[in-house]
Design goal:
The chain is 87% helix and 0% strand. By secondary structure, it is mostly helical. The chain has one domain (3-98). Helix 2 runs antiparallel to helix 3. The longest helix is centred in the last third of the chain and has 33 residues, at 66-98.
Length: 99
């Protein structure tokens, strides 16, 4: 693989990670529709870390190098963060409209 192909593969891995992070965040949001307390936060972390570990382990088992697993992991956290932030902003907006 040349440099351009490696960069494209790393980008593809990051994009896949973002999509997966968004999907996992949506599952978590649906599981806890009333929001997250500190104790639920620990459970959310366990769920998301477990979901990421399964994919990273599968990639490693299938011979995907760390240089491509890391962009997936980074993308996963971006997807989680963006989805949870959007959800928090939506909750805040609904709360302010109700007040």
């Amino acid at each position: 693989m040349n440099k351009k192909q490696r960069a494209a593969l790393a980008f593809e891995q990051q994009s896949s990670g973002i999509d997966y992070g968004k999907r996992i965040a949506k599952v978590v949001i649906n599981k806890f529709p009333n929001g997250f307390t500190e104790s639920i936060g620990d459970e959310v972390t366990a769920i998301t870390e477990s979901a990421l570990a399964v994919v990273i382990d599968t990639l490693a088992t299938n011979g995907v190098g760390k240089c491509y697993r890391d962009p997936f992991k980074d993308g996963f956290y971006i997807g989680l963060r963006n989805t949870f932030t959007d959800y928090a902003n939506d909750c805040a907006a609904r709360s302010s409209r109700a007040a």
